[in-house]
Amino acid sequence: MKRSRPRSASRATPARELAGFIAKFDPQIARLLRSARGVLRKRFPTAVELVYDNYNALAIGWAPNERASEVIVSLAGFARGVCLYFTHGKKLSDPKRLLQGSGNQGRFLRLENAAQLAEPAVEALLRAAVRQGKTPLPATGRGYTVIKSISAKQRPRRPA
User: Fold this and answer.
1) For residues 76 and 83, is the Cβ–Cβ distance under 8 A?
2) Backbone phi and psi for residue 37, each to the nearest 5 degrees, phi listed first
3) What is the pLDDT of residues 127-148, one digit of tens each?
4) What 3-state class would DSSP assign to 15?
5) pLDDT of the residue at 77
6) How far, in Å, CA of 54 to CA of 77, rounded?
7) Closest by alpha carbon to 107, among 76, 135, 148, 137?
């Protein structure tokens, strides 16, 4: 698997590192992260999965390449919940008014369960997000996981 930085002999694989990041969360949040990630990996099988274990959240994004600027959609795990983030969500047609946020570009949807990802309105948002991407997802091949950053200092991953 490709990595953005050299891996020492003792360093875990990206999949193991990501599993460790998810394990820091409360079991209910961890289950939701794992199941939603599984749905999105099946939905975007050729996408590169970019992982950021940041100060505020664990972010897992899907992109056609390793450039963060081209991430189409992300999962963000917080101590109290999981969000599906649309990088260019402001431009998406959202007739059901599912998307939240008021930033200049992105919008998000709070996930209560992974089944929400199969709802027709959410499916439509995912399809629209892929269509508006600058670079199309590869038509063939298999995606891979890249650990892009790990913050030394992080907010607690479990509620106080």
Assistant:
1) yes
2) -60, -40
3) 999 999 999 999 999 999 999 9
4) helix
5) 97
6) 10
7) 76
The Cα–Cα gap between 124 and 73 comes to 13
Q: What is the rounded distance in angstroms from the CA atom of residue 45 to the CA atom of residue 81?
A: 25
- Tell me the sheet residues that pair with 73: 62, 86
For 89, the token pair is: 């969500």
Q: Which residues contact 88 (CB under 8 A, 6 or more apart)?
A: 105, 106, 129, 132
E strand segments, 21-123: 48-53, 58-63, 73-78, 81-86, 107-111
Please answer whether residues 60 and 18 qualify as being in contact, where contact means their C-beta atoms are separated by less than 8 angstroms: yes
Residue 1, pLDDT above cutoff 70? no
Strands 58-63 and 107-111: unpaired
Checking if the pLDDT of 4 tops 60, the result is no
Q: How far is CA 75 from CA 5, 86, 116, 145, in A?
A: 22, 9, 13, 14
CA max distance for the chain: 50
